[in-house]
């Protein structure tokens, strides 16, 4: 099966959501140029993997919906969120995300910092992630 281009996935959404998703795609590519972008059709999202040696690690996604677009992080539970802007705590165990609606301002620098941090964490081992989680909790506590 041929991969689905991100543009084909986004074509099924309202123009404001496509525009937001395209802006987020540019931010992810700029923040982590080595990221591998691929549509995950079963999840109806654009996923990003970080190549690490012979394998790759999933670290971010862009999920369009009819009314908004999520920029998400499977390792979000470990990420520093001093502004308390990441959503998902109490909904999912590990994933966190930002949600953008038509007319919302996208802070490219903040999004890029979060994307970069997610890539850094995804490349860590389990013990490093746990230690970082404990550090983050003590900083926020």
Cα radius of gyration in angstroms: 15 Å
Q: Averaged pLDDT, please?
A: 90
Span between termini = 48 Å
Shape: globular
Query: What is the number of beta strands?
Result: 5
Low-confidence stretches: none
Give the class from helix and strand content and strand pairing: alpha+beta
Per DSSP, the total helix count is 4
Order of helices and strands: HHEEEEEHH
Main beta sheet: strand number and arrangement? 5 strands, antiparallel
Helix content, binned percent: 25-40%
What topology, given as strand order, has the largest sheet? 1-2-3-4-5
Task: Provide the β-strand percentage band.
Answer: 15-25%
What would you note in describing this structure?
The protein is globular, with a radius of gyration of 15 Å. The longest helix has 17 residues. Strand 3 and strand 4 form a beta hairpin. It contains 4 helices and 5 strands, in the order ααβββββαα. It has a 5-stranded antiparallel beta sheet. The protein starts with 5 loop residues before the first helix and ends with a helix. The protein is α+β, with helices and mostly antiparallel strands. Helix 2 crosses helix 3.
How would you sum up this structure in a few lines?
By secondary structure, the protein is an alpha+beta fold. It has four helices and five strands, in the order H-H-E-E-E-E-E-H-H. It has helices spanning 6-10, 15-31, 108-122, 126-140, and strands at residues 36-40, 45-52, 55-64, 69-73, 96-100.
